[in-house]
Amino acid sequence: MTSVLPQRVLSVRDGALLVEYDSLESVLSHFAALEQADLRGVHELIPAAKTILIRYDPWVVTGHEIARILRQTPAVEQQRAHIEPVLIDVVYSGDDIVDVANDLGVSIDELIQRHTQAEWRGAFVGFAPGFVYCVSNDPLFEVSRKATPRTRIPSGSVALASNFSAIYPRESPGGWQLIGRTDYNIWDLNRETPAAIQPGQYVRYRPVRELVKLTDGPPSASKLPETSDETPLLEIIRPGLQLVLQDMGRKGLAKLGVPPSGAADRYACRQANRTVGNPAGSAALEIVGGGAEFRTNTRGVICLLGAQGPASIISTSGETFPLQQGQPTPLEAGDHIKVGEITGGLRSYIAIRGGFALEPILASLATDTLSGIGPGSLRAGDRLPLMPLREDVNIHVVQPLDKSLTDLEATESASSDAVELDIVLGPRTDWFTEKAVEILTEQQWTVSSQVDRVGVRLEGELALERAVTCELPSEGAVTGAIQVPPSGQPVLFLPDHPVTGGYPVIGGVTEQHIDRLGQLTPGDVIRFRVSQPFTEY
Fold first, then answer.
1. Which domains are assigned to the chain?
2. Model-level pTM?
């Protein structure tokens, strides 16, 4: 037993703390002890290079109580089972290999030689499922991330950042420096152990001239089942800009690299399900931007909720009925559902009584666009099987949503002058100048054209200047985090965000306003308002 204790415990947002340590070994030793301690009110522990992110229920336990318990919990010795080393073939032709070699002061040949001769070991999982941060015994590999992250990194890319090496399991955004590519299958849900590299496992890279195959990464983990005309189903006629299934996501799997995912506007998804009589956490269709159409071959009840816009139901006889927000609406076999272009907000949700007859992946039907877990984006012609209704169910006996329960602010968009977002400062507020913290809250920010389920890029007249300019070791992140890359223009994390990140987080949007992020559209103007200052517990 060792005497490892946290150096600092910092605020992240309500319900989240970041715990600092002096080394990766200290992190892993204390992480093992905290997992065994079964801490009251703690939902999740996410280890990283020199930190552990703790997500907890603030209604059960306070940040001060958790900090006290952390300092009273001694570390334990890590127990590592023997695992065979992994040998990975790499073509060293990455887009950044010349720049990396120049920055490190070595030739490309020496860079490749030292990368392949070093003894690498899996440390922790982060960013995305199967993305294992590996550390080596060679001090050469201190590599800065890119000033502006790429929006697309190919599957199988071998990359460096800080003192880590890792492989991108599938196409995704990222800020690491690319030195090569492999066809090694890093993450596969069909395997008993999906991740090919485990923490503690040794990894060796082998240079090759070409690879046997190059793919775009593992296919979506869940395919839609075969259906017949007798199967109760909803057919996709037009998907709009993006159409995915979402529920409340996958909780407690971040230490495996699995993002939380789930509905970007949880309130709208939950209330739509409640309105049709489903459990609040059931899956619903998440429609981006409108322009979606569906056809059903069965009777049922649906509810549309979220972003504003016209919607209607057209019967087989050609009659058109309005599909009103928040109202339970009966369906008959053959009905055609049309959701027009959205005029306020970004995402709408359609829930159907009984829900979808699909097998969950990792206990959820959520489509995770970053890691590829779930059914994937739905396309025209897809047929979603539905849970059948009993014949004696009267679909016309329904109760409308209680308007007194409707939080109109949950789906607020830029129809007002600016969307106000309450934030908690931290955990890296002290990495920025005092002026930058003032700019964060005094300046209005505009939502850029880069908006998806991973994050929202913001643009401001003045960038946020850092006081600490050194590389930040990767650490856990949460939905609502305000991450600041070297450009000084913030990124707001949404549900499919990376589990860990290497750019400092200056603050986090409070739980109360998280759903507003899912309704932000390009051109919207937002303003941050501090509800809790930077706190060291």
1. 8-72 (3.30.1360.40), 86-207 (2.40.100.10), 233-408 (no CATH), 419-532 (2.40.100.10)
2. 0.88
User: What confidence score (pLDDT) does residue 407 get?
Assistant: 42
> What share of the chain has pLDDT > 90, as a percent?
72
3-state secondary structure 480-523: CEEECCCCCCCEEECCCCCCEECCCEEEEECHHHHHHHCCCCCC
Torsion, Cα 475 149 485 250, to 10 degrees, reads -40
Q: Which residues contact 319 (CB under 8 A, 6 or more apart)?
A: none
Q: Is 15 exposed, middle or buried (0-12, 13-18, 19+ CB in 10 A)?
A: buried
User: Is residue 177 within a helix (H) or strand (E), and if so which, with residue range?
Assistant: strand 177-181
Q: Are 389 and 382 in contact (CB under 8 A)?
A: no
Sign of CA dihedral 400, 402, 407, 408: positive
Alpha helices in 340-410 (DSSP H): none
DSSP secondary structure code for residue 314 in this structure: E
Residues 147, 489 contacting (CB under 8 angstroms): no
Q: pLDDT tens, 427-474? A: 999 999 999 999 999 999 999 999 999 999 999 999 999 999 988 888
- Measured in degrees and rounded to the nearest 5, phi and psi for residue 151 equal -85, -15
Buried b (16+ CB within 10 A) or exposed e, 386-402: beebeeeeebeebeebe
